[in-house]
Amino acid sequence: MNETGAVLREVVAGHFLPGPPQKIGLAVSGGGDSLALMHLMAEIAAKEAISLHVVTVDHGLRPAARAEAEEVARQAANLGVPHDILTWTDWDGEGNLQDQARRARYALMCNWAEAKGITQIALGHTADDQAETFLMRLSRSAGVDGLSGMSARRRMGAVTFVRPLLDTHRDCLRHYLRARGVKWIEDPSNEDERFDRVRARQVLKALEPLGISAQGISETTKNLASVRSTLAWYSFCEAQKIVEFDHGDILFSRAGFRVLQPEIARRLLIQALLWVSGADYPPRRRAMAMALEAVRSGTGMTLHGCAITLDASRIRVAREAEAVAGHCVTSGQPWDGRWQLVGPVLEGAEVRALGKAGLAQCPDWRAKGLPHRSLAGYPSLWQGDTLVSAPHAGVGKGWSAKLLRDGDAFFSALLAH
């Protein structure tokens, strides 16, 4: 056990040392993988004088979930590590449960970390999880990005999620726990064949006689991750040459876009759609193929809450007015996730999309240089049906519009994965 524990500690510590942050968060469900990571990191934290904080998310989907979270709290207390339980209460019974639970889990953990001044959260994903993820994505005909699997580090807002066990197998972690006399929780959903991951786990066992193992798949994901990084770098370099920003719109040189390799063009257009819309995920591959064909043919189209239009020299990606027509916030609040109207306090004022009705009250909108269609999806200030200010359309002195997601965010996202 001492030898196994020493090797595992070295593997985990390598993801944080030298110069570890003063505080590190750790997500623990109570399963064998994350529980082993908690014991390993508690030892590392004691040695390196790191302040370790453990968090468990209770999704409220099983009666036993709360008791399992409290068991994690008990074990953390035995290790002298503070622990918090976060509860998800927003499930409405519709949509993809696992996807919504995963998104909620990460959002809750990010908020928790930011409140505590934590910039890194460790996760217990293993080489087995990586192999299962690969098979699940393979079943959906994923491309290089999807088949590259989970990254060892992934940034979400101000928080970086770290997966220090991606080269470690479950059996090794369970051996470590047994040697320490630590019991872990077996989630009954791990045997529920309704879930894709459970079926992928079964398929992985069936493939082992053919020499297709979790270890082999894990190595394959690393090879694909190298390809992904190369494509990301070339996308970044090409974007520097052909991308411009016009307030909240992205412009591509048509001549430059035309000579891009198809995969690079696809990546740039995807990132433009994400930058403008603020969506968490890109459009499906078929939709992107249609969009690229629309660009090549010069017709343009609407996709992902964005309008793709073309003139003689440029391709423009702007917010589609209809996508934000119902979005309304009180004055002073961020609008559409990327705009902040700044100006004097005005009681009862609301920020809404300018729309056709607003543009009709902006006689000098052409002077600002933005196309009519783009302006309709820009923020404006209203009191009832009266337009108070539309900074991008030349109406309303004393107000300005601040873009919260700038051009640097676009370029940085091309390199992130």
Concise structural overview:
Helix content is 44%, strand content 18%. With 417 residues, the chain is an alpha+beta fold.
Report on this structure:
This protein has 15 helices and 17 strands. With 417 residues, the chain is an alpha+beta fold. The protein has three domains: 2-220, Rossmann fold; 247-319, Uridine Diphospho-n-acetylenolpyruvylglucosamine Reductase, domain 3; 321-403, no CATH class. The longest helix has 29 residues, at 214-242. The protein is globular, with a radius of gyration of 25 Å. The model has no long low-confidence stretch (mean pLDDT 92).
Report Rg: 25 Å
Q: Tell me the structural class.
A: alpha+beta
Average residue-wise pLDDT: 92
Shape-level CATH architecture of the largest domain: 3-Layer(aba) Sandwich
Distance between the amino and carboxyl termini: 35 Å
**Tally of distinct domains:** 3
Helix content: 40-55%
Report the biggest beta sheet as strand number plus sense, adding barrel if it closes.
6 strands, mixed
Please tell me what the overall shape is: globular
